[in-house]
Amino acid sequence: MSLTSNGRSVASRPPSRFLHYLPATALLIDTVVMVVIGLVAIVGRRELGFFRSSVSVEDSLSVAGPLIILGWLLMLALRGSYKTDVFGAGTDEFRRVFNASLMAGGLTGVGCYLVKFDLSRGFFMLAFGLGVPALLFGRAGLRAALQGARRRGGLRQRVLLTGSRSHVDEIASVLRRETWLGYEIVGALTPEYDLSEETASGIPVLGNTDDVVKLARISRADTILFAGGSTGSSNQLRKVVWELEQSHVQVVVVPSVTDISSDRVKVRPVGGLPLIHIDPPTWLDASRWGKRAFDIAGSGALIVLFAPLLMLSAFQVKAHDRGPIFFRQTRTGKDGEEFACLKFRTMVVDAEARLAQLHEQSGYSGGLFKMKDDPRITAPGKWLRRFSIDELPQLFNVFRGDMSLVGPRPPLPSEVADYDDDTIRRLRVRPGMTGLWQVSGRSDLSWHEAIRLDLYYVDNWSMLQDLSILARTLGAVTSSRGAY
């Protein structure tokens, strides 16, 4: 334990050493992937007979093979693919690996042409055609392992937050929510006029921002996050950075903007002043013909694919109690237009009549109502809900244009009546069968968190994000996390 400037004790547990070995681990994974893919390319070239040549592939690669691997690794290093700050989050790591791999492939081809080296074209195509996605999958596996360990409390960085209490609490709420980032908050530093012992969210105040260098050493912080109100001037922050340069402490400046995707943020230094440019929200792009064409093609294909499952589910619902097969509920769509949302009926026929009683029993206070072990759910309804099969009829809503494959959850008109000016923004795009709320926990999320994710989707829409959500939906459905 160590004492801070205000007498508070701070645990001096050392940071995880494995974080320093992340670049070496990534290098080892890349090397193994390249060697394996190289062997696969040699066998594939020989067995498949691509671009037959009189030169033996094995003979020509006895020298060229190791040089290609070394050159590829060198290009990855030159493009910054092994810098410690690219691991764990964001798309920068994958972009660097992809671009470096394309450059390595191009330089290999040009180099062989210039020195007139007879490199097998079949090997070249297989090596780089399979190698690039294999490297990306390897990095994705490393990231999944890293984030999983951080969620379990390991491989974390000790972080010190500096700034006004309100800004500190705002940043802390994000770090606590996104545990996969791996930040462990050890304390806060506030301006000298603030004499509080802790912030409103319970973060201990270890001292004031003037002592940031000394307290960073005492608390053994790996990272210092400078939020609003942390320094009085840019010169003061620059001096702090100079003083910390020998301590191997990472300095992060947090702008006063949240829930904005990296695609909309551009940093452009002007005269030594880093200006942050934020592009307008992209919700209008989500209403264009490209997304609608994707919805029509995708929903049509899925209706054909799931036709046997749809018929089996309909038979089971009908055979259980002879009631209606579908549950039609009025929901609110884009721009406030109401539509009949289709689902397989998973509850008893008089489920709506019992709703008021369940509201009273559960202490319902507003928003989306869901409860575990709902007594109104039928026997076939349990497995339909567990795998989200009950929502498959919404494919017809998508094909008809009421909904989209990906988007915010379609709200009830009674929910929309209670929306504030911020929440109403979620109606600017078509509601979706799946969305960020579903792949992030579904019913395990609070109402506030679900709305936050919906608004993030609306403001930061992209087709790439839609494809990512669709891919993650499969994992969320099969794990049944939050499905009840």
From TrEMBL:
Chain ranges of the Bacterial sugar transferase domain: 291-477
InterPro entries: Bact_transf, EPS_sugar_tfrase
Pfam families: Bac_transf, CoA_binding_3
GO molecular function: phosphotransferase activity, for other substituted phosphate groups
Domain of life assignment: Bacteria
A single Gene Ontology CC term: membrane
Chain segments annotated as transmembrane: 21-43, 63-82, 94-116, 122-142, 293-315
Subcellular location as annotated: Membrane
Membrane-topology descriptor: Multi-pass membrane protein
Main location: membrane
UniProt keyword annotations, A-Z: Membrane, Transferase, Transmembrane, Transmembrane helix
PANTHER family: COLANIC BIOSYNTHESIS UDP-GLUCOSE LIPID CARRIER TRANSFERASE (PTHR30576), SLL5057 PROTEIN (PTHR30576:SF10)
Family, as annotated: Belongs to the bacterial sugar transferase family.
Protein name as annotated: Sugar transferase
Organism: Nocardioides acrostichi
